[in-house]
Amino acid sequence: MAQLGKILLLAEANSMNSSSLGTLDLARALASRGLDVVTIASAGPTMVEKFRKAGLPLRCYYRIQRKTLPYILNHKIIRLAEAAEPDIIHACSPRLSSLAARLARACRVKYVVTAGNAAECRCNMKCTRRFGGLIATSQFLREWIVNNGIIPKEAITVIHSGVEVELFERMPEPAMPLRWPQRDFRREKAPAPSPQACAPVVGMIGKFASGAGHDCFLNAAKRIAGEMPEVQFIIAGDGPGRYVRDRLEKAGLVKRTTILPAFLDFRHLLASIDVLLVPGVAEGQSRLILDAMASRRPVIATGVGDNYEVIKDGENGLLVPRNDCEAFAAKTLRVLKDSAFCRQITSSAFESVRNHFSLARMANDTIAFYDHALTEELV
């Protein structure tokens, strides 16, 4: 069996989102276990700075996820991979599997792939000669991949996402209500009224896109505001926010809602939220949910996909049916009004993350997966 010493990671890290943060955390965890980690990524300046501060080598190339790269760029990446002399190549998205296969052939090593959601897997991913296996971040995703005939079941290993619990252990529990969010007065002609000293904050974090659940969130927010007028709202995500602003005006929630168009590092944003709603109907949002649970923030999410594997309804979070705005509103109001129930589910959520979804567990399972992939000889 080849000795595992150096890992070459391929990643898309253009913005501060769950996929990029997961790649950074994985690289840090592997490096802390004595492995030499080199990352090739299509990365934005924020992620470049994050890797630099962590002391992790990072080489940036634009849009490396394309199936066909310009000859010169393809040549440069192959030469860089050969100079790194990796023992295994890890593509952190199925969209990078073609590049991983080319680099694996050039370096004469095996490659593995991580799939975080079903959308990433619709890229004609193939099992080539040097393919060492696929990591699925949930059992639900594994079954979806197998049922769609993409990868054989025996080639897929489930390794759940993990968060660095130590970062959140010192974070204070939500002292509802928190401070009043900042407002955007550029579109308001009348002077702002004096806000209350403090107000509970209900938030949503996610890209402004179809299936993200913004309509459901806004409908639930209108119901919540009707019963608890002091509640404030935060909507954070990347993409066009005009769609959301128009609906906020129709719902009369403009003055009590803060929109953050730039997708921030949501781990810091969670400190300003009392209750996190995840109304999206697409799978693959478990990383955001895990960070919120580790932050001791109550999570109310749509019961789809891998959400079922992370949240036990009524124990460490709350699940509601698809697009059920009334259920989102009712459960949010219960959490806001019943402080004992809120503490119960947040404490259970923190223990669940620490015991089952830690970064240390994910790193150890990933290293074991590498070792297993290296034990199988190439044909």
Strand content: 15-25%
Shape summary: elongated
Strand order of the largest sheet: 3-2-1-4-5-6-7
Specify the CATH architecture of the largest domain: 3-Layer(aba) Sandwich
* String of helices and strands: EHEHEHEHEEHEHEHEHEHEHEHEHHH
Q: What's the overall average pLDDT, rounded?
A: 83
Helix content: 25-40%
Number of domains: 2
Helix count?
14
How many DSSP-defined strands? 13
Poorly predicted ranges: 177-197
Q: Which CATH class of the largest domain is shown?
A: Alpha Beta
Q: Could you give a short account of the major beta sheet?
A: 7 strands, parallel
Task: Report on this structure.
This protein is α/β, with parallel strands linked by helices and 379 residues long. The chain folds into two domains: 175 residues, 3-Layer(aba) Sandwich (Rossmann fold), CATH 3.40.50.2000; 191 residues, Glycogen Phosphorylase B (Rossmann fold, 3-Layer(aba) Sandwich), CATH 3.40.50.2000. 40% of the residues lie in helices and 17% in strands. It is built from 14 helices and 13 strands. The strands form two sheets. Strands 3-2-1-4-5-6-7 form a seven-stranded parallel beta sheet, sandwiched between helices. Helix 7 links the parallel strand 8 and strand 9. Helix 3 packs across helix 4 and helix 7 packs across helix 12. The protein starts with 5 loop residues before the first strand and ends with a helix. About 6% of the residues have low confidence.
